[in-house]
Amino acid sequence: MNPTYTLLEMRRVTRNYTGMFFTAVLPAFLYLVFGSTVQAKDETVGNGNVAMYVMISMAAYGAVLATTSVGGNAALERQQGWGRQLGLTPLRDSGYIGMKAIIGMTVAAIPIVLIYLLGGLTGARGDAGAWVLSALICLAGSSIFSLYGLLMGSAFRSEAALGAATGSVIIFAFLGNVFVPLSGVMLTIAKFTPLYGYVGLARYPVTEGNLADGSFDPLWVPLTNALVWLAVFAVGAVYFTRKGRERQ
């Protein structure tokens, strides 16, 4: 892995101001609207309050947008000939993947840090352990969606595919109990969607499995969801990456 190239790539990614807005600023704005200004923000939720519950949800959403975007861009670069250019340099595939992983996790950390800072300033309250654990799970779990971005970029090989990948994250968020607390049939459907497990795990240090509709999720439910979707995205990304190489 080349530190100089990693820093150059980081600068290139962070200079995309439109992308950074939707990755970091928009989720922070959503937190301010739905978490810090609602009347119920001080009501208790497990080890925290409503503001903290919304804060974690928005941080997870922003982190997923970041890793999906970086993963999709990496796939497109490889498909559009950048891989051949890199093949003329000493940079190996493992180094390229490691570099993209570092960039993805660094960019994912931006909305998490920003929203957690806003949360601390605007009334989000919870145990110290819940703050630390939820932030770490938000960061680590978002790596699942770098595989989703890689899958979409490899499968469709166009800029439109990347837009569709990040756009579909919004749909996954609505279906996955991220933006609006679901109940009944919609909650049952949500448990099979990609974001449900990841966000459920991130919230777990606060909610301890208790849901807004009064039901309870054992830890194995969000954990199984996250692992299954990790496997689905990994298999899909490997399949379409190999297929793309065969076309070349």
TrEMBL record:
Keywords: Membrane, Transmembrane, Transmembrane helix. GO terms for molecular function: ABC-type transporter activity. The chain crosses the membrane at residues 50-76, 97-118, 130-151, 163-190, 219-240. One of its GO terms (cellular component) is ATP-binding cassette (ABC) transporter complex. Signal peptide: none annotated. The keyword Ligase does not apply. InterPro entries: ABC_2_transport, Nod_factor_ABC_transporter. This is ABC-2 type transport system permease protein. It comes from Terracoccus luteus.
